[in-house]
Write a structure and sequence with these properties.
By secondary structure, the protein is α/β, with parallel strands linked by helices. Helix content is 44%, strand content 17%. The protein has 2 domains: 2-169 and 347-379, Glycogen Phosphorylase B (Rossmann fold); 172-345, Rossmann fold (3-Layer(aba) Sandwich). The chain has a 7-stranded parallel beta sheet, sandwiched between helices. The longest helix has 34 residues, at 348-381.
Length: 387
Amino acid sequence: MRIGIVCPYSWDVPGGVQFHIRDLAEYFLRLGHQVSVLAPADDDTPLPPYVVSAGRAVPVPYNGSVARLNFGFLSAARVRRWLHDGAFDVIHIHEPTSPSLGLLTCWAAQGPIVATFHTSNPRSRAMIAAYAILQAALEKISARIAVSEYARRTLVEHLGGDAVVIPNGVDVDFFATAEPKAEWQGDTIGFIGRIDEPRKGLPVLMKALPKILAARPQTRLLVAGRGDEEEAVESLPAELRSRVEFLGMVSDEDKARFLRSVDLYVAPNTGGESFGIILVEAMSAGAPVLAADLDAFAQVLDRGEAGELFPNEDADALADAAVRLLDDPDRRAELRERGSAHVRRFDWSTVGADILSVYETVTAGAAAVAEDERVTGLWARLGFARD
């Protein structure tokens, strides 16, 4: 099958959607399909052989964050060229309502289109206001996928229609078999995320840290991600700042080793999350998880069965839960066991097969329609009407 996948966000600023698209493309390539990914990217960015650049992206505030998107006449021309050269059996657009390549592709594409909706935003006035503009593009979509029940709810409430829920995928074994790193072990709390993006929740964790260190002064917080490190610790008393170690951006291999090494992974995100891929990665690596009780996080953690939850933005509750878990190795072992079992439903062997089934359904439907039109045309040329 010839598969075209559209990424709305810049390939050179990685995030959850980009990782999902990368892993999905590589899963299909391993199965022998032909895959091309169209994505915004700077001209000097090294790209995998299956990624085609649609040109430089620009930063735009979007869904409580800053997304790097690509839109305009030049982008539209590159979309048309990519569609023409690819001659795809199916086109898979991610975030088709974002003002980026997905919407341009919806407008330009012919044939079966599958769309995945990642965003969870229950109060998006902009999406409601833009419905009239989006409607023509959305009507061309053959099948809709939402990565969670909350992304599906956003779609239903703002745009109408429905979607099948297929979660984000993870290569579970990649994380489960990573080698721990000795220097990241030993009474460590882990956090991965953009440091300077408030909704990722690092300020909440920093607010909780003095209480954690008062009870457990030997504990260290390891932070992986880009951002201003000095600004991140400025709220901490000077004598506690040495207990925070910043690792900067880490490779996929080091992320897996990081999650295999820490005693506790904390996800203090404050909102705007439709899934929580980092939670799945942490569980895959066997890290006990403590997360804010966002609806999407609660669903990923099996309502607290596969990881513990604390009230969103409650630093005291976070601190109390972290101290309790760090003091209780048996409870952490129980969470590791439950998380490792629960996470198998998110492995690419399951998620990729489900997405491929959607592709096969829409391409079979398109073939049936084409055959019906061919037969109808034949009857017309023979001078017969067909009921």
